[in-house]
Every structure is written in C-alpha cells, then in structure tokens.
Amino acid sequence: MSVDLSSRSFRPYTGEKARITRAYDYLILVLALFLFIGSFHLHFALTVGDWDFWVDWKDRQWWPLITPLMGITFPAAVQAVMWEKFRLPLGATLCIACLSIGTWIARIFAYHYWNYFPINMVLPSTMLPSALVLDAILMLSNSLTVTAIFGGSLFALLFYPANWPIFGMFHVPIEYGNGQMTVADLLGFEYIRTGMPEYLRIIERGTLRTYGQYATPLSAFCSALLCTLMYTLWWYIGKWFATVRYLTKI
Amino acid sequence: MKSRINKYLLALGLMLSLLTLNSQTVMAHGEKALEPFIRMRTIQWYDVQWSKQKFNVNEEISVTGKFHVAEDWPISVPKPEASFLNISTPGPVLIRTERYLNGKPFMNSVALQPGGDYDFKVVLKGRLPGHYHIHPFFNLKDAGQVMGPGIWLDIEGDAADFTNDVKIINGETINMETYGLSNGIFWHVFWGLLATAWLLWWVRRPLFIARYRMLQAGLDDELITHKDRLIAKALMVGVPLLVYASYVMTTRQYPNTIPLQASMDQILPLPAEVNAGVVNVETLKAEYSVPKRALSLTVKINNNSEKPVHIVEFSTANVGFYNKALPLPDSGNSEPVLAVEGLSLSTIEAIKPGEEKTMTITAEDAFWETEKLDGLTRDADSRVGGLLFLADDTGKRYISSISAAIIPKFN
C-alpha cells in the first residue's frame, strides 16, 4: 500500500516543512553516497575483481564481458527505486559515480601508497558514459522493457570503446625477452605481485574466441545480451527492496 | 560500580597498548606453513646465490640457482603444467627486469617436467629503500607456492630517484612509472564532470519527499520538464558520439596495438644433473625418530665414477644437513638454514669406484621441528624427499634424489 494523494487535493510543502524535506534530501544523498561507495565498490571488487584492478587483465574477451555485466547490477536496482518512487533518472549515474570514487580511493591509498604499485598499473575503467545513456533512456522511455533491451545493450556496447582511450596505449607492443608483449604485460611482469602469477590471469581463454581475430565485438554483444537480462533481474531486486508498506502518511 | 568498570577498561587498554610496543613486524612469507611433503617433494632448490645483498635504488642485482623437479611428485598436488618463477617481496620494492630458465628468457608461465633439472636467473632492480626478506619461489598452478631459500636485502638511496624507462617497438622511450597516467586521469575527469553535471541538474531541485508526494498525486508529468527531456536526448545521442569519436581518435593515435599476451613458454629441462647415472643412490628405508628429531635413511649407493666419493650433504625443503666428518663447504649466501653438523654416517669411508655400499645416513637437528618438517609423520602422504650430494676429492659433485615412505618412531 502507499499514501493516498490526489492531484486535486495536493498542496506542495512550504515554509518549515519544505526546509525540512530539503534537509532530508541532503541527508539521504550523503548517506547514499557512502552506502554506494562502500557496497557497490565491494560488490564490484568481489565480482569483477582483478579484471578491474590490473591493467594486464584488461583483455579483449573477458574484461568487456564481465565488467558491464556486473556493473549494471546496482544501477538497475537503484534506478528502479529512484524512477518508480521519485521519477529521478539518476540511479545509474549516481551508482557508477560512487563506484568510481570508491575505486580511485582504493587504487591510490591501498594499491599505490600501501602496496607501492604505480597508479597507471591499477587504473580503473570507467562506466560513466554507459550510465549516462542508461539514465537518459529510462527517462525518455519510462519503460522497463525498453531500458532493459536498449539501455542494457548500450551499457555493455559502450564499455569497450569508452575505455579504449584510457587503455589503448597500454597495448602498444614491446620487444622483450625474445618475444613481443604489451606495455600492460610488461607492467605485470616487472612490478612483482607475489600472489599473482601470470597463469592466474583469465585472459584470452576459450575456444569460441574470435571471428577473423576480432574478439571484442563478440564479447561486447554477448555482454549486451546478458546485460538486458541482468538489468531486469536487478530492477526487480531493487523494487523488492524499496517497499513503502509502512508509509501511511506523508 | 561504573567508575570501577571504567578503571578496569582503562587498565586493560593500557596493557594492550603496552603489548603493541613489544610487537615485531612480520617478515616471513608462510614458507613453513605448507605441508612438509609438498616442500620436500616438488621443487628441490639448490645452489641459490644472490649477486649482492646491499645495493642502491636503480641498481640491478641477480639471483641465480638450480632446482630439481622431484620425480616422486605427490599425488595430491597437481602436476606443474603451469608454473611461475616468482620473487616474494612486500609489494614491488624491486622490479623484475629479466628472467631466464636454462639460459632462455621467459616472461610467462612455463610447464615443468617432473624429474627435470633447471637453472634460473632473475634480474631485479632496486625501487624502494628498505630492509626486506626476499625468496625466489615457484607459484604452482592449483598447488600454491613453494619457497626457495630466503635472504635479507638492503636497498639504499632515495625512492624518488627510481627510473624505469623502456623502449617500445616504434623506438619511443616511455617511463613505466607514469605512462598513460595523465591520459587516464583526463578521461576519468572528463566523464566525471559530465556525470556530476547530470547529477547536479537533478539534485538542485527538491528530491525525495516532494517528488514522491507529487508522483503519488499523479503529477508525474510535472516532474520531468521539457528541458529535462531535451538534455536527456542530447545525452543519449551525444555520449555515444563522443565515445565513438574518442575511440576513433585513439585507434588513429595508436594504430599498431596487440592483445595482451597469454602464451605459455616452452623450455625443456637441462641434461640430467640429478640422478645422472654416474653415482646411483637407492633409498631402501626411511625412519623418523620423533624424540631425537632425526631422519635415518638406509641407502644403497653404487659408485660408477672413476674416483672414490663421499657424502657431503642431504638437502630437503631448503634445510642443508652437512656431513659432520667433513669441513663445511663454502655455500656463499645460498642456504640460510644450515645444520652444519647435522649429518652422520654409519661408515665414514668413501665409496670406492665400482663399489656398491649399503649404509645408514642420519640427518639429526632441531631444524626438523623449527622448520616444521616433523609434520611429515602426520601427513596423508607420508613420504620423504630430498637431494643427496656426493663429491669426489677433486670436488666433482654427484647429486641423487632421495625418496621413500617414512616410518615414524615415536619412542
């Protein structure tokens, strides 16, 4: 159940009530900021993990498949709340912005200052372009189906090209040890990770890998398909959490 | 009552604070934590040497050594089909600039052959000043880490002086410490500003309660304005166009890029150095006396060389037990755990050329306990492994692997 208001009897809050509701806005925003920085960052670290931590894990195959798939989860859930209850089309951007803040804090303080890795070796990826488009599509369509299909797909498809300007230069070849490797591979070789032997990298694996040596489009479209399903699933998770059962008067 | 509790809490706090004053930094890498049968019967390290122990930032040092991959590889440990020669460091305080296996450079993982002999060299460059405990070790896929002998290294100088310039394939020299950093920050800031603008566009107006009430009143059309829709349309079209433009720009700037390299290096073992067939050793029986902390090996030795040979050392899990009847050979800085008089023999006479002799070798020292090797009597796979070093009077060395089921003696 929810509160009973009609357009004819509706009176906007004014004076003290308006000031209190505005203060409540800021309180919720600050809490949401910390909540999403912590929880989404943790979720992302546990699911995407090394693919996002290290520059030498950002391959053509698994990185563009896994990252958007796990990255669309919280945005979908928060969008469900923000849009259905408040008509605020900012859920995805808010979540991904919080994730970016969390990852940058971790990379600078945990990876660089605490564990001495150069920051360029642990540059995070960005999903902000994908999130902006997802928010815009939800607002313009006002439809879960349209957003899941087109927004979810674009969320995945935009990921790799949006990140290539950041990481493309790490794929420049180097002749090293009688072979070729990328700058990213060399960073992984040179900057010693005791618990990260090279064979642990889950990159470029599997037999259904490329069409004419192009692996990324396959991964991106596979991710796009899965993102449409993942978006829907997490939309309903968000909706389930955002109950107004106990809200009788406002 | 309350003040008494506060006093107790204060006293407890003080005691805990004093305890922290006595705490020491952990310097080990869990090298004794792995079960003895894995440490004894997988990678058997020997002749490990460091070129220097004290050096400056930017200075290069090397660690060289040999290892034998045990024939008696434990059934519960996956075969070393993907192995990575690593260096245990507290983060990248050194960087690894070169690495060789049997004289061949290798950058990736490698398959090792049980029974194979290998030598290695790793070149390291000082990055962060400090006093560090470092080991060469093998990461074995699905099995874990098998540590080689450790050593203390001192890096001196200023971390700010560290440089790591590398030439990429087009001839340009790049600084690996900062390459791509400012570009990465630029794109994160660029998209971050756009996202912030979008968020502020909505946050500047009343949010939760006010909008919830309006939505419940059926006024949702008023919550999204014409300008909002215009901006969203601009985002929906503009963002993909920007992404595409920046992608094309990057591919033009870096037209020759390659995927991350994921190959496995293929390096064959050296000609046999251990069990080379000149002096053959067969382990007949192995007993471990728990109270004496002594391993007794009954071995049959067949000397096919042209000179008499004597037993010099029994080495297992980086602990060297040296024949007490012989002068201690110079092992440089290779093995920090030396039981200098830990090896006694049932007969001190050398094994003559062509002779076959059965004898008992006893490796006795507290190291069995302090190095946590005595647990081999409680393992599911209670077998002992190691290397037996023999030599003739000219110093020519013969190495044989030792392998046998262990019989415990509890009294």
Description:
The complex is a heterodimer of chains A (250) and B (411). With 250 residues, chain A is mainly alpha-helical. Chain A has ten helices and two strands, in the order H-H-H-H-H-H-H-H-E-E-H-H. Chain A has a two-stranded antiparallel sheet with strand order 1-2. The longest helix of chain A is centred in the N-terminal third of the chain and has 33 residues, at 15-47. The mean pLDDT of chain A is 92. Chain B is of the alpha+beta class and 411 residues long. Chain B folds into three domains: 36-165, Jelly Rolls (Sandwich); 181-253, Helix hairpin bin (Helix Hairpins, Orthogonal Bundle), CATH 1.10.287; 279-409, Sandwich (Immunoglobulin-like), CATH 2.60.40.1580. In chain B, the strands form five sheets. In chain B, strands 15-16-20-19-18-17-21-22 form an eight-stranded mixed beta barrel. In chain B, strands 1-3-8-5-6 form a five-stranded antiparallel β-sheet. The radius of gyration of chain B is 31 Å and the shape is elongated. Classes of the chains: A mainly alpha (250), B alpha+beta (411). At the A-B interface, helix 1, helix 5, helix 6, helix 8 and strand 1 of A face strand 4, strand 5, strand 6, helix 3 and helix 4 of B.
